[in-house]
Design a protein that fits this description.
Elements lengths: L7 H5 L4 H13 L11 E6 L2 E6 L4 E3 L15 E3 L4 H4 L12 E6 L2 H4 L7 E2 L19 E6 L4 E6 L4 H9 L2 E2 L12 H8 L12 E7 L6 H6 L7 E7 L12 H9 L3 E6 L17 H21 L7 E5 L8 H20 L3 E7 L3 H7 L11 E5 L22 E14 L2 E12 L28 H12 L13 H13 L10 H9 L13 H14 L11 H13 L10 H8 L3
Parallel strand pairs: 3-4, 4-5, 6-7, 11-12, 12-13, 13-14, 14-15, 15-16
Antiparallel strand pairs: 1-2, 2-9, 5-8, 7-8, 10-17, 16-17
Helix pairs in contact: 9-10, 14-15, 15-16
Length: about 600
Amino acid sequence: MTLPRPPRVRLRATTMLTALAALTATALAGAAAPAGAADGAKDVSYRGYHVRVPSSWPVIDLAAAPDTCVRFDHHAVYLGHATPAGQATCPAGLVGRTEALVIEPLDATGRKSMDGSTRIAPKGTARAAVPRTADASSGRIRQAVPAAGVLVTASVGTDDSAAQTILDSAALDTGAKAVTLSGTAATEAAASASASAVAPQPGTYTGLGFDPCAAPSNAQMSAWSASPFRAVGVYISGISAACDQPNLTAPWIQTQTQAGWHIIPIHVGLQAPCNSFSHKVSYTLSTAASQGHSEAQESIAAAQALGLPQGSVLYNDMEAYDQTSATCSDAVMTFLSAWTDELHANGYLSGVYSSAGSGMVDLAGEYTAGTYTMPDHIWFARWNSAADTDATPYVPNDYWAGHQRIHQLTGDTDETWGGVTMNIDRDYLDVGTGPFGNSTCSASLDFSLYGSITAGASGGAVSAAQCLLLRQGHYSGAVDGVFGASTTTAVRSYQSAKALPVTGTVDSHTWTALLSAGTKPTLQSGASGVDVMRLQRALIAARGQTLSIDGDFGPATTTAVKAYQTSQGLTADGIVGSLTWTALQAGK
């Protein structure tokens, strides 16, 4: 049997250490002399901008070493702009971040990296004010220093205070030459994007693709038009993304899609709690759910900034983990379910990348259970060199069978096309635009009452039931509002899986189970959001109560919860915990 791909980080952790060591002596020759030996720090100077970093950090002058991969999984200081040639050498699947620093000119190239989160140091100063709310959730702190004409990017490890301490040490000398910024970073970033519309990605495509660590330049992508690939994976967001992304902008997305490339948007954020990464999902399930919602919001914001529209699939990169640990698997499934819920609530489709032997096994095991919201697409790592989407025995062939799969078939390979060499992972795609999941259903799920519906019925309630059954993996037909034979079969299948009476009729018990399906966050008065809406719908279905579906856990929802808990012999405290969710999801 061909084994699935092992964790990426274990394959690539030491690839560049030798190169970094070799470059250190040369690079330091162009920097200020080390200082602060007593406190273990040294001074690094670039264009009149000074900053203190640990003395053990290598300092790499990218002008002298343009073939260097600018990466954030090792401590280092990089001076100058990352080059396309250098980023092409980055190992394709680097994952994870620690503290590192990039100091580059604030010229036209540098300004392309600025966005609405970029801090601006006041005139004549080296330091930008720290905002009241943290802005390091993406794994970096970026600030422009016009007084020295530099853009400084600090990657964040387990504690953003370490990166902030380095930025707070900054100072200027008389060699600093000021530049003028016209307008805000957000205004300049918005102005750089054209008005051309981009279709939902990756769209409809069957064939080969590749994913590098950093988005290639336009010239490199043009050279690779000679390759058999027509899809490219790009890391658009996530605190565990390890490579600098100097090319990834909205105009880049537009240029590549117009050239016929299909974009695979990747978010590589929190990893399984039983893994060795710095940034992890919590073992506490309520926290894991909250993290899933937050990570999805971050990825949605990044997608929107890049011009990737609703209907696009955003893939969460969940690296291989110990699937035999039930507590670890529960945390991962809770996190991914919340990720999917949040994407659906905002009109995006959900994808999950993972090893065939860990994340895919867990997802397949929950496909019809109804406990978690399933992603719309899967992307499994199984390095068997087969250009197909066969994931057996890890995932049955009839799961995610409607053009909803990507297979990563090889990795860590250098390939040359059009005279350009890049380190890539190879993929084979069979993807389409839908309909998958609740996000693509136009039917409303909100009703004042959820009456019984059966074969021969038609209308909005039928469409809602079809959407929910589709989301739970029991229905694959059209969401057309017609309760025909295929809908009846799907209802019976769902009822059987949930140990409900198998009648083929969507009654109050079936409605309650369908509407409450998902994660089990603890909710109480004052809570808000999509999970509260899910709760409100289920309470209406369970007891026929009059309740607004507004996502606000106010007095009326508290009263409805207490009434439901009393009817089920539960403690009527108005707090929706695991026992209350379990009862609802059992259709009680």
